[in-house]
Amino acid sequence: MPTPRRTVLAGLAASAVLGRPARAAAPLRIGYQRSSTLIALLRQDGSLEQALSAQGIGVSWHEFTSGLPIMEALNAGSIDVSADVADTVPVFAQAASARITYVAQEAASPEAQAILVPKESTVRSVADLKAKRIAVTKGAGNHFLVLAALKEAGLSFRGIVPAYLSPADGRAALESGGVEAWAAWDPFLTAAQKQAGARVLRDGSGLSRYKRYYLAAESYAAANGPVLGVLFAKLAQTGTWVKVNPAEAATRLAALWKLDPEIVLAANAHRSYRVEPVTRDGLSEQQTIADAFRAEGLLPRPVDTAALGIWTPPVR
């Protein structure tokens, strides 16, 4: 019996649909900076792409100079996830009404950032920095370190002259005499000490715990729990590997960062690299940071740091 034309057309349409390749899932877009150690290692070895391949998801990598530009890209929808950024960064992002979610944290590493002065400087204490020019990266962890160190010394941020510079420009300004001090974080901190003899005036011990956070766009976190679960697991594994294999990790990172392996080894010793879930109680210092910047007139509005969402990894 002849097949009705409508049935034939329907069959052809179904065949076309079945034969059409499935639309590829959108890649996970990760923003990172040079100091994003664990992300740098994952990018180098391709293990994150391999782990996500079962979900049909690729990864695209986007480099930025520091944490605040990463947050701006995250809020603009240009990336989905940020590599580790200092504790201060999400506070500034929240003040700018960014819709972001905490995904993971690296445990405190207070010695991984410090205020440096040239080796021949006559500055011997933070109190000596009154009315001096200090290079700092706006909205970075070193920004809060400077606030906290000045307060400890009985000074206000208004009592110094900030020079808002990238890490590379901050070091150049310190070495050329353009600033009297520079607040830096690793690996830039250790590199300046080892290569130029810069002297630590004050590190974060007792002032700033210097946790580093991984964040995602709010909408991405809500819709992509399985992807974030894979990312969290790979970050935790890599962080453990770095601490168990410090020499090999330093060699791999030295090639990426174009630094001597001994510098990287020393810098990595300052970092915990212990990747943990974010908890509401663990965010208490975030409010301290927000209040400190607001008191100095450096945030446009008050910030309730408890208002940001927290993604929780699945129990394994």
UniProtKB/TrEMBL annotation:
The keyword GTP-binding does not apply. Residues 27-245 form the Solute-binding protein family 3/N-terminal domain. GO terms for molecular function: ATPase-coupled transmembrane transporter activity. InterPro entries: ABC_Gly_betaine_transp_sub-bd, ABC_SsuA_sub-bd, Solute-binding_3/MltF_N. GO terms for cellular component: ATP-binding cassette (ABC) transporter complex. It comes from the Bacteria. It holds the Pfam family OpuAC. SMART domains: PBPb. Keywords: Signal, Transport. Belongs to the bacterial solute-binding protein SsuA/TauA family. PANTHER family: ALIPHATIC SULFONATES-BINDING PROTEIN-RELATED (PTHR30024). Part of a binding-protein-dependent transport system for aliphatic sulfonates. Putative binding protein. This is Putative aliphatic sulfonates-binding protein. It comes from Methylobacterium terricola.
